[in-house]
Amino acid sequence: MEKLARKQVQALTPYLSARRIGGSGDVWLNANESPFGNEYNLSLNNLNRYSDCQPAELINAYASYAGVKPEQVLTSRGSDEGIELLVRAFCEAGEDAILYCPPTYGMYAISAETFGVERKTVPLTDDWQLNLPEIERNLDNVKLVFVCSPNNPTGNLVNRNDIIKLLEMTKDRAIVVMDEAYIDFCLEASTVDLLAHYPHLAILRTLSKAFALAGLRCGFTLANSELIQVLLKVIAPYPVPIPVAEIAVQALSEAGLARTKFQVLDISANRAYLQAGLSAIEGITVFDGWGNYILIEFPDGDALFKAAWNEGIILRNSPIKNCVRISAGNREECEKTLAFIRNYYQ
Ligand SMILES: *Cc1c(COP(=O)(O)O)cnc(C)c1O
Fold first, then answer.
1. 42 in a structural domain
2. Is 45 inside any structural domain?
3. Predicted pLDDT of residue 25
4. Which residues line ligand 1 (CB under 6 A)?
5. How far from each other are the two terminal CA atoms of the chain, in whole angstroms?
């Protein structure tokens, strides 16, 4: 069967998600999921009918949360589908390119590869910021520039001034896609206010992280309406199942938002606990994280990752040498993890 697939698909290595890697144990700090399982009501009445392509109640609720107009919001199956829609709508296969700055999230590359779109990479600088001169030298044929902030897996924010310089540099040439999957943990760092000045800015958001709904598959693209209209041309006719919209609207209600705010504070406190505890261990470097995870450099990252794995503490190894990413789970998970690492280095 493989031989019948498109050549690009034959050559493709699928994204190695935390789920696909697997593992077994009782501490799961590998996928930046929320430790909270919240309850929702489902009516399940209208399932004989198709859903709206862009359910108005959901769009209005997210627009209000994000501080934009409803016509500046598109909802999709997770922000991963947002990435794919952008590639499909703006990049000509075999002609155009996307540009991204590793180490960063893996799905930009996979979406481009799937559609036969060239991938250009300009690595982040040593302090994980944009290398603007190098980006400018590589902009030929580039239609989309992906910037992740807070960046996964490094955890840092990208300097706002550099994002503005990038937007100036790419005017009338390419779209800048800000991946803000973790922005709900540091909302003041959002670039959403820049939408008013830059029609070529698109922002990816999701309910998977701070809103504790990774399994729901609900994400958003924020952009000016002209850009949103282009994406609506290529989206599936019924991308949002009725129960998904129902739950997402509850998550974005006044009570839902208050709960998320509280949970974000709780998770951030656990992240600070991990950060402080790990920093006290000699030989380990803990990097500041702005999302619900931190990146840590160990003397031997692979060995630490495997030892934790064998103890049922599932962390995420990273492409950065000796670095392991740890999600901020509940306090008990963080305590177990910290105790394990402390013991390991004693
Ligand atoms: C988790 C994550 C996403 C994907 O979010 P979904 O909405 O679950 O598809 C996108 N970007 C980054 C950087 C992420 O870490």
1. no
2. no
3. 85
4. 32, 78-80, 105, 148, 152, 179, 181, 206, 208, 214, 219
5. 52
pLDDT recorded at residue 91: 98
Domain containing residue 189: 56-253
| C-alpha distances out from residue 229 to 71, 86, 143, 221, Å | 9, 12, 17, 11
Domain boundary among 228, 253, 278: 253
Is 63 part of a structural domain of the chain? yes
C-alpha of 276 from chain center: 25
Q: Which residues of the chain have pLDDT under 70?
A: none
Tell which atom from ligand 1 comes closest to the C-alpha of 209: 1
- The conformation of residue 2, written as its DSSP 8-state character, comes to G
**pLDDT for 45:** 84
Atom of ligand 1 nearest to the CA of 105: 13
- Cα 58 to chain centroid, rounded: 20
Q: Compute how many other C-beta atoms are within 10 angstroms of the C-beta atom of residue 48.
A: 5
Judgement on whether residues 63 and 85 belong to the same structural domain of the protein: yes
Ligand 1 pocket mutation pick from 206, 207, 222, 294 by most atoms within 8 angstroms of CB: 206
In sequence order, what are the residues at sequence separation of 6 or more whose Cβ sits closer than 8 angstroms to the Cβ of residue 97?
Answer: 91, 112, 117, 118, 119, 120, 140, 141, 142, 143
The pLDDT, as a whole number, for residue 44 is 85
* Residue 242 and residue 262 in one domain: no
Ligand 1 atom 11: residue of nearest CA: 181
pLDDT value of position 299: 96
Do both 72 and 197 map to the same domain?
yes
